[in-house]
C-alpha cells in the first residue's frame, strides 16, 4: 500500500490538506497527517483544529511514497521555517521520493532548490518563490517527481493526480466518479 505524509504547520489550509488526503484514502492509499508543531493538534488558517496522526520525528522517510505540503498562511511560512522538515524533504527528493505541494506550498520546494529546471504552478503572487522553475498557470502539473497545484480549487484534482500516479488512472477515474466530481 502506498503511503503519503501530509505536513501541517500552524496556519495550514485545511481544505487543501484534507481534500487531497480524502481522495487518496478513498483510493486505498495510507495517509499520515504530520504535525510539524510541538503538538498533535494543529490549528489551521481558519482556526479549525485538526489532530495529526504523528509528529515530524515519527515520519518514516524511507517508507513514504509522497511527501505533501498544503498551502495556507502562515502555514507555508511555518513549513519553510521548519529546518528538519526542509532538510528531510530535500534528502527524500534526492533519494527518488515524490514531493507534492499546493497553493503557496510550492514556494517551500522552490526555497530548498527542488524546483530547479521543473515546470511548476502555485497560487498567483508566489511565482517568484518557485526558484529555478518555469511557472505555468495549469491547475495541476507533474514534472518528474514533483507535483504542484495552483490552489484550493484544484485540491481534488491534485488528489486524483497523485492517486493516478500511486495506483492507476483507472483507480483515480473510479474515485472521481464515486464522489460525483465531473467538473473536469
Describe, in plain words, how this protein is organized in 3D.
It is a single chain. The mean pLDDT is 97. The chain starts with a strand and ends in a 6-residue tail after the last helix. Helices cover 32% and strands 22% of the residues. By secondary structure, it is α/β, with parallel strands linked by helices. The strands form 3 sheets. Strands 5-2-1-6-7-11-10 form a 7-stranded mixed β-sheet. The protein contains 6 helices and 11 strands. The protein has one domain: Rossmann fold (3-Layer(aba) Sandwich). Helix 5 runs antiparallel to helix 6.
CATH class: Alpha Beta
User: Within the CATH hierarchy, at the fold level, what is the topology?
Assistant: Rossmann fold
Helix coverage percent of residues? 25-40%
Give average pLDDT, whole number.
97
Instruction: List the uncertain runs.
Output: none
How many independent structural domains?
A: 1
User: Gyration radius, to the nearest Å?
Assistant: 15 Å
Number of strands: 11
Beta-strand content estimate: 15-25%
**Structural class by SSE content:** alpha/beta
Q: How are the elements arranged and paired?
A:
Layout: E1 3-8, H1 14-26, E2 30-35, E3 41-43, E4 49-51, E5 54-55, E6 66-69, H2 75-80, H3 83-94, E7 98-102, H4 106-111, E8 119-120, E9 134-135, E10 140-143, E11 146-149, H5 155-166, H6 169-178
What keyword list fits this structure?
alpha/beta, two-stranded antiparallel ribbon, 184 residues, 22% strand
Summary, kept brief:
The chain is of the alpha/beta class and 184 residues long. The chain is built from six helices and eleven strands. It has helices at residues 14-26, 75-80, 83-94, 106-111, 155-166, 169-178; strands at 3-8, 30-35, 41-43, 49-51, 54-55, 66-69, 98-102, 119-120, 134-135, 140-143, 146-149.
Amino acid at each position: 500500500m502506498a503511503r503519503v505524509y501530509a505536513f501541517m504547520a500552524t496556519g495550514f489550509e485545511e481544505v487543501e490538506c484534507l481534500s487531497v488526503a480524502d481522495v487518496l484514502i478513498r483510493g486505498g492509499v495510507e495517509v499520515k497527517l504530520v504535525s510539524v508543531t510541538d503538538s498533535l493538534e494543529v490549528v489551521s488558517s481558519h482556526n479549525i483544529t485538526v489532530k495529526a496522526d504523528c509528529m515530524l520525528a515519527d515520519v518514516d522517510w524511507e517508507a513514504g511514497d509522497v511527501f505533501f505540503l498544503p498551502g495556507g498562511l502562515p502555514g507555508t511560512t511555518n513549513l519553510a521555517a521548519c529546518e528538519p522538515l526542509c532538510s528531510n524533504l530535500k534528502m527524500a527528493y534526492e533519494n527518488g521520493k515524490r514531493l507534492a505541494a499546493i497553493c503557496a506550498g510550492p514556494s517551500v520546494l522552490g526555497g530548498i532548490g527542488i524546483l530547479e529546471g521543473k515546470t511548476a504552478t502555485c497560487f498567483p503572487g508566489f511565482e517568484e518563490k518557485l526558484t529555478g522553475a518555469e511557472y505555468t498557470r495549469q491547475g495541476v502539473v507533474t514534472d518528474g517527481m514533483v507535483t504542484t497545484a495552483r490552489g484550493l480549487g484544484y485540491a481534488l484534482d491534485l488528489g486524483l493526480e497523485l492517486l493516478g500516479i500511486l495506483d492507476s488512472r483507472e483507480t483515480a477515474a473510479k474515485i472521481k466518479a464515486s464522489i460525483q466530481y465531473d467538473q473536469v
